[in-house]
Specification:
Elements: H1 21-32, H2 36-58, H3 60-71, H4 80-126, H5 131-136, H6 139-181, H7 183-230, H8 232-237, H9 241-293, H10 299-340, E1 352-358, E2 364-366, E3 374-379, E4 385-389, E5 394-401, E6 410-417, E7 422-427, H11 433-440, E8 455-458, E9 461-462, H12 468-473, E10 475-478, E11 487-488, H13 489-494, H14 502-511, H15 515-519, E12 528-529, H16 538-552, E13 556-560, H17 568-582, E14 586-590, E15 602-607, E16 610-615, H18 617-623, H19 626-637
Parallel strand pairs: 7-14, 7-15, 10-13, 13-14
Antiparallel strand pairs: 1-2, 1-3, 3-4, 5-6, 5-8, 8-9, 11-12, 15-16
Length: 638
């Protein structure tokens, strides 16, 4: 039952119900278990606060019957007893106010600490989830777990639950006191309360439907605004401002109509409840007067009863809204826990990457200090350990893979990248180029379910045996869609190697040809980047991403359209620096601009997830096959 002037759920949102209320409550209780002692103080505070509220109404009877009425007409009344009673009432009010403050303060502390734990656990678990999970969920959906859902839990813990408990105590205490004062008038109050609940339930039913329609309309308007803001250049290029405004007006009109209907119904509840409450109060007062006239009640008792009836009905009209808010919060908590319960990224690897001393005779020993040399530490079942030097050889053996079992993306891919080789992956969109790189760094694992099995070896070691963190430390990756973090330019480059010195950062920037533009920023390497680098051009952002990979100094590089947003002149300058970066490293390059892969040691042509051609640029041109068509077509188009 909504409260006055509010929608069917907390904050005017349509009420959502958890799928498993009992399980969610028990899980929240486990988070709250460490605050058992504080909850004892909360319980005591609520008892004192509610008791003070109930006691204040009871004092009306002796105030009227024992002091005010007897003193009417007296010239020199004795006020000492009256003053003592008022002093007692004042102390009770003060105690109730202090108890209410203590209750709010403790619950604020408990809710803040609990949400801190939940938020931390949620974020830490997100960092453990596989890439597959993020591909299946939108950023907005995941962000809402940290914002909307966490907010509803906070409101429930700090406000709704204590208020619901306090209201329940108040209602029970008032009901007992009303029965004690007058069972007949109590029956009348109960009848009017049930009438109020029935009427409010009918209005609330239509209000909930109207709010759902309003939320749907809000979603459409917000989605349209977001699209228009992101696509503002397209709108202006094609002169679609007026058409866009007309479509927005249509959506906005629907939102206005839905919002008017929803809030009209919601706003009816306030006056409706108030007026029904006034009618109930008037009927109770009239019945009480009739009892006084018949000599069955006195004025003080009627006054106390009327105050109790008001205190009895007001919490009831609010408890339904609190209950809806709790259900919303439990639904939000259930969504948060669903993320926390997601299966984390499985890592069964046991081969690790360690600092190594590699002697001239080939002997390898592990070093606990940085040496600039690396080796794979490979424990065996018999307890022995072998060390394999990190070279960067990558082998694909009959790799078949699909993101979904029903849809195979790669078919029997077999190829070898020798240490220091530059391998170019070319082909039309959707041919499987990026999927190959996703398998190299184990964003996804090659399936062994297909006939013949699928194996990817790194320096002769099955990558499924290598711990993912160690494998990825040996890889550098530059994606087509760059992402920069809020922080200085130096910090963004240092993301590739957190302990990199400023000298290393500048060297990496020079290698990526980013040093020149960085030094012309208003604060050079200390320039703060915000909004994913919106103040930089796309080309400059990619230069920083290349510098980030360069500072990591990995033996294997994966460049996924790394120069797609850089002009030809800058690309030529980068190529010179990249040649130095690639020296002695295995490099996988994905490029649609085929002129950038002419100097690759091997060009692999993919089509529908299969390798259809492989060889050097000259060899493939001589074959006049698919690569020849792509290469000559690209030049013809230009």
């Amino acid at each position: 039952m909504p409260g006055p002037g509010r929608g069917p759920g907390a904050h005017g949102r349509p009420m959502q119900k958890p799928k498993n209320t009992k399980k969610t409550i028990f899980r929240l209780v486990r988070y709250l278990a460490s605050y058992k002692l504080l909850f004892v103080f909360v319980f005591i505070s609520i008892l004192i606060s509610s008791g003070a509220s109930v006691a204040s109404s009871y004092f009306l009877q002796p105030v009227l019957n024992d002091y005010i009425i007897p003193m009417i007409g007296q010239k020199s009344p004795d006020l000492s007893g009256f003053i003592r009673l008022l002093s007692m009432m004042f102390c009770i009010f003060v105690a109730g106010a202090i108890a209410g403050w203590v209750n709010s303060r403790i619950m604020l502390h408990i809710s803040s600490k609990t949400l801190y734990k939940i938020r931390t656990e949620l974020f830490e678990h997100l960092e453990k989830l596989p890439l597959r999970y993020f591909d299946a969920h939108t950023h907005g959906e995941l962000m809402s777990r940290f914002t909307n859902d966490i907010d509803t839990i906070r409101d429930m813990l700090s406000q709704a639950v204590p208020q619901l408990f306090s209201s329940t105590l108040t209602v029970v205490a008032c009901f007992v006191m009303m029965l004690r004062l007058s069972p007949a008038l109590t029956l009348l109050v109960i009848i009017t309360v049930f009438a109020m609940i029935a009427v409010t339930g009918i209005v609330g039913k239509y209000s909930a439907k109207a709010f759902r329609e309003q939320q749907a309309a809000i979603g459409k308007v917000n989605g349209y605004i977001e699209e228009l803001i992101e696509g503002q250049k397209v709108v202006k290029v094609f002169c679609r401002e007026e058409a866009s405004k007309a479509e927005f007006d249509t959506l906005n009109d629907k939102l206005c109509a839905a919002g008017t209907k929803a809030n009209t119904l919601a706003n009816i509840l306030g006056p409706l409840m108030n007026n029904m409450g006034h009618i109930s109060y008037a009927l109770t007062a009239i019945a009480g007067v009739m009892l006084i006239i018949r000599g069955k009640m006195d004025l003080g008792r009627i006054a106390s009863f009327l105050e109790y009836s008001r205190s009895f009905k007001n919490p009831i009209t609010q408890m339904a809204q609190m209950f809806n808010g709790i259900l919303n919060a439990l639904a939000g908590a259930e969504r948060v826990f669903a993320v926390i319960d997601e299966q984390p990224e499985v890592d069964d690897g046991y081969v690790t990457l360690v600092n190594a001393n590699i002697l001239s005779d080939g002997t390898i020993t592990e070093s606990f200090l940085p040496t600039g040399q690396w080796a794979w530490k490979h424990p065996h079942h018999d307890g022995s350990i072998t060390y394999v030097p990190l070279k960067g050889e990558v082998q694909f053996e009959n790799v078949t893979f699909g993101y979904e079992k029903e849809k195979t993306v790669l078919h029997e891919i077999t190829m070898t990248a020798q240490p220091g080789q530059k391998i170019a992956l070319v082909g039309s969109t959707g041919s499987g180029k990026t999927t190959i790189t996703n398998l190299i760094n184990r964003f996804y694992d090659a399936s062994t379910d297909y006939e013949g099995g699928s194996k990817i070896r790194f320096d002769g070691i099955n990558i499924n045996k290598i711990k993912k963190a160690d494998l990825r430390r040996s890889l550098g990756m530059v994606l087509q869609d760059t992402h920069l973090f809020t922080g200085s330019v130096a910090d963004n480059i240092r993301f590739g190697k957190l302990d990199a010195s400023l000298t290393e950062i500048e060297a990496a920037a020079k290698l990526a040809n980013a040093d020149y533009f960085i030094r012309h920023l208003h604060q050079g390497y200390d320039t703060v980047i915000t909004g994913d680098g919106e103040s930089l051009s796309q080309g400059q952002r990619q230069l920083l991403a290349i510098a980030r990979a360069a500072v990591a100094n990995p033996p294997v590089l994966i460049l996924d359209e790394a120069t797609s947003s850089i002009d030809t002149r800058t690309e030529a300058l980068i190529a010179k620096g990249m040649d130095s970066l690639m020296q002695g490293r295995t490099v996988f390059v994905i490029a649609h601009r085929l002129s950038t892969v002419r100097n690759a040691d091997k060009i692999v042509v993919l089509e529908h997830g299969r390798i259809i051609e492989s060889g050097s640029h000259d060899e493939l041109i001589a074959q006049k096959g698919r690569y020849y068509q792509l290469y000559t077509g690209s030049f013809a188009a230009s």
